Amino acid sequence: MRYYSLEKYINLFDGYRKVFKIDSHHLMLLQLDGDRYLIESNCPHREYPLSSSDVDGMELVCPQHGYRFDIQSGALKHFSEEPCRNLLCFDLVDRDNEVGVMLDY
User: Which Pfam families does this UniProt record tie to the protein (predicted)?
Assistant: First the structure.
């Protein structure tokens, strides 16, 4: 496992959203109500980018087909076509004045 720095705390705010590509991982860092989440950045249904998705409460809504995922757990909450797997969620690591992630490489 290797540590990857994502963002300095000073740059984070509620509504923050940024996509990262680290090796084969496509990730999106979000901050909502003071809490930070790191999830995969493409919908597992058809790989549509979630960077422009809406947030409804604690659910991320895919703009392509309206699939809804729980931001905290990644669980699929609603689907409009066939069901798909849950979103992958990643544990964030606090280090010094930044947030990052440990990933296999």
Answer: Rieske
